[in-house]
Amino acid sequence: MRVGRGRRFRLKTEFGTPEFETEYLAALAGHPTQTKGRSAGTLGWLFDRYRETPAWRNLSLETRKQREQIMAPVLKNAGHQPFAKINRSSVVAARDRRGETPAQARHYLEAMRGLFKWAVDAGMAKDNPTIGVDDPARAKTGGIPVWTEE
Predict the structure, then answer these.
(1) Does an H or E element contain 25, and which?
(2) pTM above 0.90, yes or no
(3) Cα(36)–Cα(23) distance, integer angstroms
(4) Pairwise CA distance, residues 135 & 102, whole Å
(5) What is the secondary structure of 52-86 as a DSSP string?
(6) At a CB cut-off of 8 Å and minimum separation 6, what does 58 contact?
(7) Exposure on the CB side of residue 1, measured as CA atoms within 13 A
(8) SS3 108
(9) Per-state percent for the chain, helix, strand, coil, to nearest 5
(10) How many Å apart are CA 44 and CA 12, to the nearest integer?
(11) Which of 46, 50, 21, 23 minimizes the C-alpha distance to 34?
């Protein structure tokens, strides 16, 4: 929401609820209410910070959408865990759990590589646990069949 040319405020509560009314009135007064966020130092918190950066905005819309879809179940299961405890073996284990679908495992690694590359560059993480983790092997196929005359 925005009043005139003033500062914008995102209203995060559901329309029609008493909480929405409180948040709306506070935004009109220029004092938005604080909503409960993720705890600092968790994987969910780190991903939220990543999504606020130019590194995230420079990705194509399709890549951002894909990475959000990949990270949604990860954050649901482990978003409350400290990201500093993620190590190479936990990344390898997560990749291997997705081994039935090599493309999904590869996309998971790409999402984690992007997140931790940014975190190291921004000084939020000491090291990148995805370094040295190999992509899963691609399935061997016969390739695309050659066209015949008919």
Answers:
(1) helix 18-28
(2) no
(3) 13
(4) 8
(5) TSHHHHTS-HHHHHHHHHHHHHHHHHHTTSBGGG-
(6) none
(7) 17
(8) helix
(9) 50, 5, 50
(10) 18
(11) 23
Q: What are phi and psi of 2, to 5 degrees?
A: -150, 135
The Cα–Cα gap between 145 and 36 comes to 55
CA 100, CA 85: separation in Å to the nearest integer? 26
* Alpha carbon distance 115, 43 (integer Å): 10
β-bridge mates for residue 2, sequence order: 8
pLDDT digits (tens, 9 = 90+) for 87-122: 999 999 999 999 888 889 999 999 999 999 999 999
Q: Any idea what the Cα angle at residue 68 is, between residues 67 and 73, rounded to 5°?
A: 105
Torsion angle defined by CA atoms of residues 103, 105, 108 and 109, in that order, rounded to the nearest 10 degrees? -110
Q: At residue 107, what are phi and psi to the nearest 5 degrees?
A: -65, -35
Residue 86: what residue type? I
